[in-house]
Amino acid sequence: MYIQATAAMSPQKTFGQVPFLPDQIIYPGSRLQVVEPEYKDWIETKLLRRMSRIIRMGVTTAKACLQEGRETNPGAIITATAYGCLEDTGIFLTETLERKEEMPPPTAFIQSTHNTVGSQIALMLKCHNYNNTFVHNGFSFESALLDAMLLLKEKEAHNVLTGSMDELTDNSFAILNRLGLYKRTPDAHRHLFASISKGTVGGEGAAFFLLSDQQLAGSYASIDGVTTLYQPKDVLAVKDWILSFLTTQAIQLADVDLVMMGKNGDTKETEIYQQLQESVFSSIPVIPYKHLCGEYPTSISFAVWLAANILKTGEVPLTDGYRDPLQKEIKNILIYNHYQRRYHSMILLSQCK
């Protein structure tokens, strides 16, 4: 499966015609927010007024991806989200309480469903093809990729627009912060990996990919395999799973040029990454990515965007997470991530030949 075009909206300057991560934006505290473009350049003003923030993010990123791929009517639209439209959900619940559960306005409820973004994209494109949304928590984006692979393999579509989006609202950040998910120091983001402690930094973002089963001129990379593992017994089970996946993909550990890990600075969650880095991946360069986008259930979509650009440009951005340039050409990248130690996933990408 080949990435023909891609677009990402993240807490870094990644959206639009911009250089490939020339520098890193450092945020105060432990909340990273998307760098938003001028939405009216992408969506009609009359439509914008009825769209919440996550819908704007998702639709705009999807349109940018399709514009780069010169596609107006994809063979399928597959979206993924774990949180859904939190802002609209919060508005509906608040109005329900304020009105004492009597006649709350239905608009916010209608737009709070998880498939709202996929539906809006289809309506704007007048696309009547396959449309599906996956809401599988930490496996949401991976499930969308697997669905796209099946559609292409079975020749049900000539290309597939696949993407994910998740937002972090004031309410959700406050709730998750009270539950201890985030660090509470003013310099948490700046020193995310320097001082491993309890909690991480919250993030959000949207990333879309135009995928096909044919390599074309200008293709970013090939997605060779996707696999998931739920609640492994221990780190040994994870090691066996990693080696089994590589065997299935007919690739040796020595052939992996770069591993991208979902390290997030949390004491408990970093432990398994460290054990793998010191054992299975001891001879392979390893870089993190969540210092750029923050932690959220579909953050691995940002990692795929990052890996695709690395494979296309041949350059690893010199961010705080990795400052030593690689000494060899990068042909294969393995992304490994786990979300809250339960949802483990890997995605293997390779350079287009």
Write a structural description.
With 353 residues, the protein is an alpha/beta fold. It has eleven helices and ten strands. The protein has a ten-stranded mixed β-sheet, with helices on both faces. The longest helix has 17 residues, at 53-69. The radius of gyration is 20 Å and the shape is globular. The two termini are 13 Å apart. The relative contact order is 0.17. The mean pLDDT is 92.
Q: Report the biggest beta sheet as strand number plus sense, adding barrel if it closes.
A: 10 strands, mixed
Low-confidence stretches: none
Computed over alpha carbons, the radius of gyration is 20 Å
Tell me the fraction of residues in β-strands, as a range. 15-25%
The pLDDT mean sits at: 92
| Total DSSP helices | 11
> How do the strands of the widest beta sheet line up side by side?
3-2-4-5-1-6-10-9-7-8
- Could you say which overall geometry the principal axes of the C-alpha atoms support? globular
What is the helix fraction of residues, given as a range? 25-40%
User: H/E element string?
Assistant: EHHEHHHEHEHEEHEHEHHEE
Annotation, overall tally of beta strands: 10
Distance between the termini: 13 Å
Helix/strand/pairing category? alpha/beta
